[in-house]
Amino acid sequence: MFDVVVIGGGVVGGLLLRKLSSYNLKICLLEKEGDVAMGQSKANSGIVHAGFDAKPNSLKAKFNVLGNKMMKKVTEELGVKYLPNGSLVVAFSNEEVETLKELLKRGEQNGVDGLKIVYGEELFALEPNLNRTALAGLVASTGGIVCPYELTIASIGNAMDNGAELFTDFEVVKIEKGDFYTITSSNGEKVQAKVVVNCAGAGSQKIANLVGDYSFKIGFRKGEYLLLDKESGNFTKRTLFFTPTKKGKGILISPTVDGNLLLGPTAEEIENCDTQTTKDGLKTVIEKAKEMCQNVPVYNVITSFTGVRAYSDRHDFIIEESKHSKNFILVAGVESPGLTSAPAIAEFVVDEIVKNMLVLTKKENFNPIRKPDYFFSKLTIEEKNEIIKKDSSYGRIICRCEQITEGEIVRALTENPKAKDLDGVKRRTRSGMGRCQGGFCQPYITEIIARERGISLGEVTKKGKNYTLLVGKTKLEIVI
After folding, report:
1. Residue 324: active-site member
2. Engineered SS bond to 154: which of 78, 228, 259, 328, CB 3.0-4.6 Å?
3. Which one of 49, 370, 418, 427 is the catalytic residue?
């Protein structure tokens, strides 16, 4: 019997689990995939929004501004990279300049600091690569960038280190309510809980329906991205936005915390969670990026990907106890600025909702600190040598592009939450995320996974079941 069960292993669920782990509670997280950060938290822009876009008095506005202020401390504690690089919303017409003025007023209403509108040469001095057709820009100095899946993994790992449990491959198909909740997976596994928190992202409507709550509907919006090599990482200093539309903030150009350059996303309404990239979608990304900036280095593209954003028909975050099922908490419709808002949402849900359902007492030995997942390349020669003396595996570089060592890969396979496949190692260590996209290091990482997990090479997968890497031998072994 758990005090609280969190359904959904994304960034909101992860930070909420971490917050819960600071109390004397028996808690767990259920994730339908084979690893955490496999949905919206795996493929989004990684933007820490300043908070000027959300409508005043909305939950988006409230939690965006609070989450922005919390992000620095949260990332420092979890060993996650965070860069307060600021953002710039660019206007290319007089009508859009008026929109910037409205956003400025809205931001001031929301309590956002460091906002101003710049024009002409002052604008181009900030971002020299902007197209000279730009008229003005709204500068938001409190904007930033973070890695969404790194933050998710670190949050859940820290929670597990503080006593939380994680169940992966646990697709919730049935929820029964009596004196407590009994939650059943597609494999027939069951867990019981006094309180359930629905953080299932794209699946939150389905989970709510299982307890008879039909109070909202979830829609899906597909966004395609292009990622450029680190050689182009300094193309912009800030995150560059077009003026927003009803469909969202549009195509952006932004550096990443790991030194790459990101272009995207598109915004296409879809019926399901299709994550295939398309020729037309990527063409749109390139065309819009060239409208924003001159000489966009698209020749440096190293990969493309697609993310799906789930939004609700309420067009705001849904954060409340279900009116249809007592002690069942809804955390749904968390679209942009959901990543930024996640720390504040987690704190609110626990301290303002869960506290009315359970007795909360602080855990005296709670440790909020977590060591970074990949760190070796940033150390001095002396520091590296000291680590290698203790563990020689840190002296062997496996991923040359990202300078990731065998020791870091082993750590990803053995620390909470443990990586189980190639993409799991990739998300934790960045091995395979460089210019060659795993072309050289993948065979070595596959061997390390097999060795550390005690399985055959043929059992190692790319990203869980049905994604086998090796299907058989190409040569017969001849023994003389």
Report:
1. no
2. 78
3. 49
